[in-house]
Amino acid sequence: MKIAIVHDALVVPAGSERVALSISNLFPDAPIFTSAYLPENTFPEFKTKDIHTLQFSNLIKNERQFKKLYPLWLAELQLLNFSKFDLVISSANYLSKFVHLPKHTIHVCYLYNPIRFLWKHKVYSKESLPFGSISLSLIKSFLPVLQKYDIKRTRKIDHLLTISNNVAGQIDRIYGRTAEVIYPPVDISSYPISSISGDYYLYAGRLISHKRADIAINACKKLNRRLIVAGDGLEREKLEELAGKNVVFTGRVTDQELKELYANCRALLFPSDEDFGLVPVEAQACGRPIIAFRSGGALETVIAGETGVFFDAQTTESLIEAIQRFELLSFDSDRIRRNAMNFDISVFNNKFRSFIDQVISHEGAKIEKQS
Q1: What is the fold of 3-185+345-370?
Q2: Domain map of the chain by residue range?
Q3: pTM of the model
Q4: HEC string of 77-132?
Q5: CATH number, domain 189-342
Q6: Which long-range contacts (CB under 8 A, 24 or more apart) does 169-172 make?
Q7: Is the pLDDT of residue 197 over 90?
Q8: pLDDT in tens, 255-268
């Protein structure tokens, strides 16, 4: 079968982009269609791929510019012609699942989450949106119409996959659809395991409001603990103003630099309510424990008392209490690493390939029966 892959955008080195890369590696002959591609701003492995972008994407220089033109990308996406493809795999956060396909083309969507700005818009601050408070007002004004459109289009997708049981529950509640869970991949063998506890805590991830890096910064500031913040994003300037002398911002780091930061940290601080969250799995691959907000995907990747500890509220005070509790405990790096193996890339590859093979077999038998 002739296969195409569609991903929202390749403008940042985030978790969904890493998963899209893994899907592409499974189907190396499949071209990748995306709204915009900034080669120097995302994973370098994409440079070897057959990537097709939408019109005017060459004008985009950064993430903020990209987000301002979301309606344009959505409109252009509908005009793409996929008539020569038998199967389209969409890797979707907010855009690619809306691709318009001919009747003969099968659509398999790996859905990371129901669109956050439609269903969880309160998690965004004005700094994290392209037009600030104007964006929030527009979203609220058109929310019922946009949600109805999202539900209608999502229900038309032939087959749904998703990243966690947490998101599968959201998909069921919002869209009335069942999605099969295949956890996102991490190449565990590429992460160095460490049993040595460093002198710093680590926050790793994009610096946007719903990630709640501010909680980690405030907690370490009040406890006078060293914190390294690895990552970049629209709220970096605001967070740097918040930080004390014990907080270091590295900006964007390479994969190898991030692995070294994981391996040498005291623990990873994970204050976000994530749909899954690759970062805690990556840190556990290095044998390092996690201090995580007790919600979302962390409940499926972190084992309390064995691979980390939880805190119950997204507040500085709750995280402070968890850090103090953590510092009285000890953890086994080998046990932590074994837990991470449940999310190894080999598991993802086998399950994803098997699912696609089943879809092809089922759809082929259906076509044969009709003919």
Answers
A1: Rossmann fold (3.40.50)
A2: 3-185+345-370, 189-342
A3: 0.86
A4: HCCCCCCCCCEEEEEECCCHHHCCCCCCCEEEEEECCCCHHHHCHHHCCHHHCCCC
A5: 3.40.50.2000
A6: 170/113, 170/114, 170/119, 170/275, 171/111, 171/114
A7: no
A8: 999 999 999 999 99
